[in-house]
Amino acid sequence: MKIIVSEPLPLSADEAFYLIRDDMPSLVPYLYDIERIEVVERTEEGDTIRLVNMWYGDMAKIPRAVRKFIKRELVTWKDYATWTTHDRCSRWRLEPSIGVGVFECAGSTTLTEDGDTCLLEMDINLEIYPEKVPGVPKLLARRFRPQIEAVIEKQVSPNLRNLALSVRRYVEAKG
């Protein structure tokens, strides 16, 4: 699945870039279905910063019909991002905590200025493979494929799509 986002933000491109790169955990109250984000690792080399963030989805948002198949680890993932200051860009990939191959998600995030407007632009590729969910028999995976895909897609995709909305809410809350 290809996801393209291009949304205006109420900040300068530099302000938005540093907020998203350096203070992502402060956006958690404004993100869809995310319980918390932890910075696991940060390394700096010139204008390049590499981050590893651990994202924890909100278990309460999982539909009851598939809840018994969904473990906490399935809605927890690492975000490996390389941010470059000169172009205000991040190239990243997400890795599930368990079930290697349950989904593949990679993309880029760029903050640009168009006159007085800052644009958050994201180019995302997301592929979901519910038959690889640990502990789910293949027959059930086929039967529940749509529900399992929906859970994973609801945990990953809306947060990627709603990053701009989350930044706007954060800015409004900060006054």
> Structural class of the helices, strands and pairings?
alpha+beta
Q: State the total count of DSSP E strands.
A: 7
The overall average pLDDT, rounded, is 85
Termini gap: 36 Å
- CATH first level: Alpha Beta
Rg, please? 17 Å
**Total DSSP helices:** 4
In the residues, how many domains can be counted?
A: 1
Report the uncertain regions: none
Q: Report the sheet-strand fraction.
A: 35-45%
Helix content: 25-40%
Sheet with the most strands, sense and barrel status: 7 strands, antiparallel
- Please name the CATH topology: Alpha-D-Glucose-1,6-Bisphosphate, Chain A, domain 4
SSE pattern: EHEEHEEEEHH
Outline type: elongated
Assigned CATH superfamily: START domain
Q: Supply the CATH architecture.
A: 2-Layer Sandwich
- Taking strands numbered 1, 2, ... along the chain, how are they ordered across the largest sheet? 1-7-6-5-4-3-2
